[in-house]
Fold TetR/AcrR family transcriptional regulator.
Amino acid sequence: MESSKPARVRILDAAHELMLTVGLARATTKEIAKAAGCSEAALYKYFASKEELFIRVLAERLPQLTPLLQSLAAEPGQHSLEDNLTEIARQAALFYEQSFPIAASLYAETQLKRRHDEALRQLGSGPHKPIEGLDAYFRAEQAAGRVRRDVDTFAAASLLLGACAQRVFAYEATQTGVRPPVDEFAPRIARTLLGGISVAEDPSGP
């Protein structure tokens, strides 16, 4: 761990690494502080709990899905709809790929998951936020005239993000255990969804 880095950065780096390697349940604040080269008291100067630290790791150390969705919803009509959906699918696929190994242990320990769910509610976060963000973006594009008025935007958001999440574990039991490469997967998901929501008759062009 580089001591020249600010303490908060070192703590986030250490938490990210430990959550990936030993799992969320075993990544105690004591072990995180030790790996960051600081005291546990110093850790609590920056983060109120391990739950908050976990949420900050998701927000600051993984692909920035939520900020992307917020920026697109704020300025609909920018770039092509297909390009935007492709980038959303790419970022979402990477986010789920990197976050699931960290969060997986939550589902093995009921008490741990309950504490994290409560922390997520208190901080206004949670796995539903990307769906809400993508839904908001689709509604903004509806208002801009690029998404059909009859489209169920929540369902469309759920389909895209659900496919990206499913990619994480659907191929673990196959013979190769290899996921579809994200740079091939994302455009295919985007084009397929686009065919159902775009105002254009032929979203792929002439």
Observations:
- The CA atoms of residues 132 and 154 lie 8 Å apart.
- Residues 201-206 have pLDDT under 50 and may be disordered.
